[in-house]
Amino acid sequence: MPSVYRVFESLDALVTLVEEARGVPMTSNCVVPRGDVLELLDDVREALPGELDDAQDVLDRRDELVDDAAQEAEQTRSTAQTDAEEMLAEAQSEAERMVAEARAEAEQLLAKARHDAERAVTDGRRQYTELTDRAQIDADRLAHAGRAAHDRYVADGQAEQARLVSQTEVVRAANAEAARIVDEADSEVDRLRQECDGYVDAKLAEFEDTLTKALRTVSRGRTQMWRGGPPSGAPTGLSNGRSGTGMDLIE
Q: Which residue windows are coiled coil (predicted)?
């Protein structure tokens, strides 16, 4: 960077020198000291960095560098394509290998599953046969026991029937005694009903006789009370259709 500053300083000094130079009359030219100008130009040349020369070299070799870069890019692309094709081939080979291994493993698993399924079916059939045979044996045993129990119950029923038949006379006597007791009870009920009816009839007769006597007494009292004639202002006849015999009180 200091060399760049030096270039700027030399250029500024050169510009100042030209601006302050003595002009040529009737023209736009000027007279500058040759030595000072050359000295400033030498300073500028010395202060210019070497990168400018390198840049100029690069510019001069531009086409060559572009061709080299294109060749290198083509070589890199070709190499990358070759590597990609190799990697693709390896990947396809690896994939095919993995598919083959997976297929072989699947076939092994399928074969094992079939074997296990066949063994399970065989075991199931064997267990089914054993259970069926055992159930048949138990059914036969239960049927035999049921027949024996049925025969025993039939024998017991027949014996009980015979025992009940042997007690028929006792039952008949008991029924006759029960019928006799029922008849006696009916007779006793009829007797009590007749006695009750007689008692009620007697009481009603007594009540009727008492009422008759009371009516007669009332009738005589009224007759005697009205025998001398009704008092002044009293009605001469019996009102409301009463007979005056005492029977009009029974209504």
A: 70-123, 175-202
